[in-house]
Structure prediction request, 227 residues.
Amino acid sequence: LAKTTQPISMDSYEGQEVNITCSHNNIATNDYITWYQQFPSQGPRFIIQGYKTKVTNEVASLFIPADRKSSTLSLPRVSLSDTAVYYCLVDNFNTNAGKSTFGDGTTLTVKP
Amino acid sequence: DTEVTQTPKHLVMGMTNKKSLKCEQHMGHRAMYWYKQKAKKPPELMFVYSYEKLSINESVPSRFSPECPNSSLLNLHLHALQPEDSALYLCASTQGRGEDTGELFFGEGSRLTVL
Prediction:
């Protein structure tokens, strides 16, 4: 199972772009990279998922370099409501038999 | 329907009580999970069911007993818990078949307090 490393915390201001990087040096060939957002006392919520290069959806972008040993979640123009914990998971159900393990996550605090 | 529904949202129980947490999904997912989350910590995997069979037990104490009656339901039976078992219990599901990329769908959790 690929272990992930993220910064413990990050601060930002409203309207800024935030980039959170996750390191996953031993990612397997079939693993996907998935990011989740979690607010206090709620379940994690899917943000974005990718395998390689760049993925963009309505809330975020995910950048994955060619070696796939890291990934960067980019949140454009954050607001106060983006204050949350962000988790990066590296997983493939078929190869890991569902052993989806969370790392420590990054606590993002957005200030006015 | 892309929801995972957990009941109850809050549960308070004594150390001698027997209670159950319930989880339901109607997305046709064949893998379901129980996680435990303490304050300011990441979710910690407890159990995984695949096609209604227990596939992963992360050395969880026997006072926690999972059950998967059918492909849509997952229960967690609780008996003789300790105060340190107080936590947010999260249920999740994923496709669990075919080209499953591992995207997890989570419920809102059940907040358990053991007195």
